[in-house]
Design a protein that fits this description.
The chain has 293 residues and is of the alpha/beta class. The chain has 2 domains: 84 residues, Orthogonal Bundle (Arc Repressor Mutant, subunit A); 200 residues, 3-Layer(aba) Sandwich (D-Maltodextrin-Binding Protein, domain 2). The chain has 10 helices and 11 strands. The strands form 3 sheets. Strands 3, 4, 5, 6, 9, 10 and 11 form a 7-stranded mixed beta sheet that branches. Strands 1-2 form a two-stranded antiparallel sheet. A hairpin with a 2-residue loop joins strand 1 and strand 2. Helix 1 crosses helix 2 and helix 1 crosses helix 4.
C-alpha cells in the first residue's frame, strides 16, 4: 500500500482558507503565519498535481476538482478525529464528557432524576447539557455537537430507539378570554386569540403546532411558553406532565375543545455514532430508558 503524499495538516489548512475566506483569515484562525499557510496550500497542489483554488478579489475560490477533494478531506479529518477520540476513551476507560442534547418537550422531572441517578455511576464523567427544539436535535448530531440526543424524530443516517410518548394539551389561564365564552371552542375562537409557540432551535425553522390563522408569539423554550400562558397572555399546547402543578394550582386550565385538546408526540433516543459509544454514554442511555418507561 502506497503511503499518502499529503498530510492531514495540509488538508486542514486548505479547509481553513476556504472556510474563513482567505489566507490571512486562515492564518489568524490557525495561529500561524500567512506565508506558512500559503506554502502549505501550494505544496498540497503540487503533490496532487491539481489546481484546487484561485483568488477572486480577496477571496479564495475552489476549482471544480477542489470542491470534490475538499469534501472528501472533511470526512478524512472527521475520521481522524474519531480515531483520536476513541483512543482517548480507551485510555481513560470512561469518557471525560458526555454531550447531551435534549428536546425541550422531554419531561424535566425525568431528566433530573436520570442525571441524579447517573451521577454516582459516572466516575466523574462531565455532562454538557443542551436544550433543543424540533430540528435543533438533528442539527446537534450533524454538527458533531452531541454524543446522545433526545429527538422528536430519528434523522437519516443515525440510529435510535423510541424513548417516551409525550401528551400535549391545550391550556390557558382560567381568566383568559377563551374560558369566558362558557362553551366549547371552535378553531374560529382560537384564531381570534394569541397562540404561544416554541420556535425551532435549528436552522431549518420548522413550524409545528400552531394555527395558521392565529396571532402568535414565539419563544425559545417551553418554560417561557408556560410562564407566558400561565400569566394569561395567550394559549397553547404544553406537555401535560410538565404542567401538572400549574393545573392543580389553577394557574392553567384545559381549553374546552371538542377536538384537538390533546395531541401526542414520540421522542427518540439517538446516538451520534453507535460504533463509538463509550461506557458512560451507554450507562446514561440505560438510565434514561429505565426512567422513561
Amino acid at each position: 500500500m502506497n503511503s499518502p503524499k499529503v498530510t492531514l495538516d495540509q488538508w486542514r489548512t486548505l479547509q481553513a482558507v476556504i472556510d474563513y475566506g482567505g489566507y490571512a483569515q486562515a492564518a489568524d484562525h490557525l495561529h500561524r503565519s500567512q506565508s506558512s499557510v500559503s506554502y502549505a496550500v501550494k505544496r498540497l497542489q503540487e503533490l496532487l498535481g491539481l489546481k484546487l483554488l484561485h483568488i477572486e478579489g480577496r477571496k479564495a475560490v475552489l476549482s471544480d476538482a477542489g470542491k470534490i477533494l475538499l469534501q472528501r478531506s472533511r470526512q478524512l479529518l472527521a475520521d481522524a478525529s474519531l480515531i483520536e477520540q476513541q483512543a482517548h476513551h480507551l485510555e481513560q476507560g470512561w469518557e471525560a464528557e458526555i454531550r447531551l442534547a435534549v428536546e425541550s418537550a422531554f419531561p424535566t422531572q425525568i431528566l433530573m432524576k436520570a442525571l441524579k441517578q447517573f451521577e454516582p455511576l459516572s466516575q466523574k464523567t462531565r455532562i454538557r447539557l443542551q436544550e433543543v427544539v424540533l430540528s435543533g436535535a438533528e442539527e446537534a448530531l450533524l454538527n458533531g455537537d452531541a454524543d446522545l440526543v433526545i429527538s422528536p424524530y430519528i434523522p437519516q443516517g443515525f440510529l435510535g430507539e423510541e424513548l417516551i410518548q409525550i401528551n400535549f394539551v391545550a391550556v390557558a389561564n382560567p381568566g383568559h378570554a377563551l374560558h369566558q365564552l362558557g362553551r366549547s371552542l371552535t378553531t374560529h375562537d382560537l384564531n381570534r386569540e394569541t397562540q404561544v409557540i416554541v420556535s425551532d432551535s435549528g436552522k431549518k425553522g420548522i413550524d409545528a403546532g400552531w394555527l395558521s390563522g392565529s396571532q402568535r408569539w414565539a419563544v425559545n423554550s417551553l418554560e417561557s411558553a408556560r410562564k407566558i400562558i400561565s400569566n394569561g397572555l395567550g394559549f397553547g399546547w404544553l406537555p401535560e406532565k410538565d404542567i401538572e402543578q400549574q393545573l392543580k394550582d389553577k394557574q392553567l386550565k384545559y381549553l374546552p375543545l371538542n377536538k384537538g385538546l390533546c395531541h401526542t408526540g414520540i421522542l427518540y433516543l439517538v446516538y451520534a455514532d453507535l460504533n463509538q459509544v463509550g461506557p458512560a454514554t451507554r450507562q446514561l442511555a440505560e438510565v434514561l430508558k429505565q426512567l422513561s418507561r
